[in-house]
Design a protein that fits this description.
This protein has a single domain, classed as Ribonuclease H-like superfamily/Ribonuclease H (Nucleotidyltransferase, domain 5, 2-Layer Sandwich). It has four helices and five strands.
Length: 143
Amino acid sequence: MAKTHYILNTDGGSRGNPGPAAAGIVLRSGDGEVLKTASRYLGETTNNQAEYRALLLGLEIASTIDPRISLADVEIEILMDSELIVRHMQGKYKVRAKDLIPLYEAALELVNKFGSVKFEHVVRELNTEADALVNQALNRLGK
């Protein structure tokens, strides 16, 4: 069976740390076609928690976008501007913050369902669409 390739941009942010927070994701096919965008208001949380919750949102959407595709046949490239979360997920940094451990474990559980997952840290300027979705969600609520 042919592999399916997705590119997932995620971003989470809070206004204040902690403060009102939101998540934004853009899921693309391997050839760059936008398959789904989503944003979600998260309530009061920290920036790092928002980044993890954005990752979880994106992984959940990617895992259900096409029920005909076995996740074992999916290669997903995840682009995030949070170096901390990327290094956690790559196994390069230990997760020390107690509030992040359950989010990390939930993300790991979802990641393990895919055939192949690659995390890449990108500069904020290369993550503008996901960032814009975060700001839209916060602005909609006047946060």
